[in-house]
Structures are given as structure tokens and as C-alpha cells.
# Entry
Amino acid sequence: MDITSAEFVKGIRGTDEVLSDGIPHIAFIGRSNVGKSSILNALTGKKELARIGKKPGKTTEINFFLVNGKYYFVDLPGYGYAAGGKKDREKLRKLIIWYFTSGEAKPRKVVLILEAKAGLTEFDEQMIGVLKEKGHPYIIVLNKVDKLSQKELSGMIAKITQAAVDSELLQTSAETGRGIDELRDRLLGIE
Ligand SMILES: Nc1nc2c(ncn2[C@@H]2O[C@H](COP(=O)(O)OP(=O)(O)OP(=O)(O)O)[C@@H](O)[C@H]2O)c(=O)[nH]1
Ligand SMILES: [Mg+2]
# Structure
């Protein structure tokens, strides 16, 4: 399915009326700097829709983008960003946990994004624990695959599959566009 329209609606830092308008959420989550915002831009074909950054910690609110007038793509801040101020980091962590546990948001699908070189970290395993506990359906996306050779990539995929056997694993590069059409089809074919 094509994306014909995508527009920024609002960024929230806590409870908000946008959570009760009945529009289904597809939420993008992952460690800081893995390319959540870049993937959202690649999926919608709009390079400047979500703000991306060279430094981790670019996204600081939960941002809602209305796609095809029908879904929200929800761009969350990243977790596990070690270089940020402790107070800010804790605030973002709480915001992410609130989104997944308060019951106010009921994401139809969660896209958990990993960075190809780092693979599955302790932070990701904790996040998967929260998603499972709350029963949020998720898929795992390995992004920045352009940074690995085919051999390295095969090794990394084997490792992740071993650790997270029960979830689907897609490979993408927001940089080269690899896997982006497949991810879009996967997400929008879930009516
Ligand atoms: N090589 C490569 N770089 C990428 C890819 N995707 C994103 N990047 C780069 O990674 C950096 C971080 O991208 P963002 O999209 O801001 O990452 P984010 O996960 O939204 O980060 P936070 O909002 O800080 O949590 C930017 O410099 C992007 O250009 C990719 O597939 N390949
Ligand atoms: Mg971001």
C-alpha cells in the first residue's frame, strides 16, 4: 500500500486528547540514534517530516504523524542514551514506559528498531519484556544494515533470531532504502 499523505499532528509529554480519538497507532521504538525518525521519513517519503539528528537524543516528545488520514505513526524518544544528562534521560525513560503501560495508548503494532552493528542490547530486552507483559504486538526491525557486510549481517541475524525467536525480523536501511517497501507493506497491511 502507498502512503499518500503524512502530516505532523502534535508532540505530547503526557496525557492528551489525541490518545482518545480512536485512530490506531503504529509506534516506533528503540535505543537512541538507531534511526526511528529516519525510518518514519523513509516510509512516508518525506525527508523532513520527523527531525533526525547526528547526536542521540533528538526526539524528546512522543510525536504523532497522521498517515493516509487513517493511522498515527508514533515516533517515540529513544532509550538507553548514556551520554545525556541523567535527569533528562530518566524523564524520557518514564515517558516511554508511560506510553506502553498506562493503558491510555493501545498501539496496534509496535516496531522495535535495532541498530545493525549493536544488535539486541540489554535495553532492548527490557523493552521487549514490557511489550510482552502488556500484550503489545511487535515486530523487530534491524536498521542501518548498510553498515555491515553480508557475512556480518548473516551472523547478526542468527544471533538475534536465537535470542528473540518468537518475533518477526525485518532488515532495513533508511539510508539506501533497503527493506523500506517491505516494512511499509507489512505495517499497512494489518487492518
Ligand atoms: N548509515 C545509516 N545511517 C542511518 C540510517 N538510519 C538513520 N541513520 C542515521 O543515524 C542518525 C540518527 O537517526 P535518527 O533517525 O535521528 O535516530 P532516532 O532513533 O530517531 O534517534 P533519537 O530520536 O535520538 O532517539 C542520523 O545521523 C541518521 O542519518 C541507516 O539506515 N543507515
Ligand atoms: Mg528520533
Notes: Residues 36-37, 58-59, 75 surround magnesium ion (ligand 2) (CB under 6 Å). The domain at 6-188 is CATH 3.40.50.300 (Rossmann fold).
